[in-house]
Amino acid sequence: MKNSTKYMHKAIALGLIASFISFQSCKKSFLNVDPAQNTAATLFFKTQDDATKAVSAMYANLREWNNIAFAPIAVESMGSDDVEKGSTASDATFFNDYHNFTITSGDAQLGGFWKGQYQNINFANQILTNVPGITMDETLKARYLAEAKFIRAYSYFRLVRAFGDVPLRLTLPKDASEYNLPRTAKAQVWAAIETDLTDAANVLPQTYSSADIGHATKGAALALHAKVAMYLKKWSDVLSYTNQVMGFGYSLYPDYEQLFRTTHKNNQESVFEIQCALIPNNPDASNSQYSQVQGVRGVTGGGWGFNVPSPELAAAYETGDPRRDATIIFRGETTPEGDKIPATGDNPMYNQKSYVPFSLYVSGFNEGCQQNKIVLRYADVLLMNAEANNELGNSAAALIPLEQVRARARAGNAAILPKVTTTDQAALRTAIYNERRVELAMEFERYFDVIRQGRGTAVFGSRGWKAGKNEVWPVPQNEIDLSGGALTQNPGY
What PROSITE patterns does UniProt report for this protein, alphabetically (predicted)? Predict the structure, then answer.
């Protein structure tokens, strides 16, 4: 059912061996992968070109199955009230166990998500260990190390909010005795993430030439640090980091629906997105399945129809909010790109943000393989800034970035989306929470937003969510078994 990479558990998850992917000539080198050619780490890391290939491989891995398809849908999206399983009722029923909070530690998607993140961390650690010894341009070397720290921080952020305490590996193991680490207290993991992001932001440039579009920037490091600080309720830090990003020249893309289309990748609103492409004559390198697994089911150029919007999400928008139709493909509609959606089928709604026009489908390639996955965008930065200001008692200041987001959605139609004017902290908090929901819907933010806001029982309780347990998912049982007991299970599982 999937295109996934096979690998040895300890080699990838814990970092003894890295197989760095050889690349064909391409300006955006990390898009153009020949997965059949690999080089052992002991024979690698000799030249600047080796360092470049290693960094490119690290980015390429971000679009691998466990990073972008079923596993993150299960762990980062399916618990939300904004989504349902989708597809046919009998297919991939394990998603329902995430949605109903009945999942057990043996489910394969937990293990896939865990492995995907530690695979990213392994790539980063290989770079951080081996690139310093290469004789190469020192400025480029420093940048590569900063990029590796950003990716490592991004993966640990995904791990710690999903599982709580997780093994913290910041160096490669020296021998077999260091294969299996116990879980590290989440406070220490968060601290390591913050250190990596501070180091990265101090080195990374604000922009790149076209050849390096998609690499992590200073803005990406600061925006991710703001999000980390938001989870930790360090509101002064959230405000500081977002204020810096707001001075870097980002702006909201004028057309909300179009900002997610493949023709507008890496636009002025993009802070960091995972680069995906359809590479002619190379289906193996065109391996992203982010769009495919969520695409409209039952049409050529569509997809499998999983992770679909829920009726609750459709009802959450204010009357006339155009983001509703820009986020949700409704059965029977014609998309702005001219695709007619069948009036009958398994699902009444699909994710429009992952949608690729059917005319761009090429036989033999994954549907929608050219669709980037947006990780951080400027609207999120503005809403984090608004939330931080409000939590710090600066409610009047919070209204300014909030209005920027609403004004873009309003698109000049004064009859919809009136300005939020309240400066009552509690009322404004609710308004900001609601704005995050509709602005960032179907972008894998809602589930963990509700938990960090302390509203899990109120929002998810009717589906079985329990405080003291469901703030995190179970640690994969297979990882516990492979660790020889070094790993322990989360309470309640």
Answer: PROKAR_LIPOPROTEIN (PS51257)
Q: Are 142 and 92 in contact (CB under 8 A)?
A: no
Rounded to whole angstroms, the Cα distance separating 409 from 416 reads 9
Final residue belonging to a domain, choices 342, 371, 400 = 371
Please report whether residue 127 resides in a domain.
yes
Handedness of CA 95, 472, 62, 8 (dihedral sign): negative
Tokens for 265, please give them.
């990748």
Q: What CATH number should be reported for the domain holding residue 43?
A: 1.25.40.890
In the chain, the largest separation of any two C-alpha atoms, in whole Å, equals 66
pTM score: 0.93
Among all chains, which residue has been given the structure tokens 């193991």? 173
Q: Which domain holds residue 181?
A: 8-204+454-493
Q: Report the C-alpha gap between 368 and 295 in whole angstroms.
A: 8
The answer to whether residues 480 and 356 belong to one domain is no
Q: What is the pLDDT of residues 45-54, one digit of tens each?
A: 999 999 999 9
Domain-ending residue, one of 343, 371, 399: 371
**Which residues are CB-contacts of 189 (< 8 A; sequence separation ≥ 6)?**
156, 159, 160, 165, 166, 168
Q: Is residue 218 part of a domain?
A: no
**Could you write out the three-class secondary structure of the chain?**
CCCCCCCCHHHHHHCCCCEEEEECCCCCHHHCEEEEEEEEHHHCCCCHHHHHHHHHHHHHHCCCHHHHCHHHHHHHHCCCCCEEEECCCCCCCHHHHHHCCCCCCCCHHHHHHHHHHHHHHHHHHHHHHHHHHCCCCHHHHHHHHHHHHHHHHHHHHHHHHHHCCECCCCCCCCCHHHCCCCCECHHHHHHHHHHHHHHHHHHCCCCCCHHHCCCCCHHHHHHHHHHHHHHCCCHHHHHHHHHHHHCCCCCCCCCCCHHHCHHHCCCCCEEEEECCCCCCCCCCCCCCCHHHHHCCECCCCCECCEEEECHHHHHHCCCCCCHHHHHEEECCCECCCCCECCCCCCCCEEECCCCCCHHHCCCCCCCCCCCCEEEEEHHHHHHHHHHHHHHCCCHHHHHHHHHHHHHHHHCCCCCCCCCCCCCCHHHHHHHHHHHHHHHCCCCCCHHHHHHHCCCHHHHHHHHCCCCCCCCCCCCCHHHHHHCCCCCCCCCCC
Q: What is the pLDDT of residues 392-425, one digit of tens each?
A: 999 999 999 999 999 999 998 989 999 999 999 9
Tokens 């802070």 belong to residue: 271
Span of 34-43, 200-209, 239-248, 448-457 with lowest mean pLDDT:
34-43
Confidence of residue 40 (pLDDT cuts 50, 70, 90): low
Q: Is 57 part of a structural domain of the chain? A: yes
For residue 209, being part of any structural domain is answered with no
Query: How many domains, the chain?
Result: 2
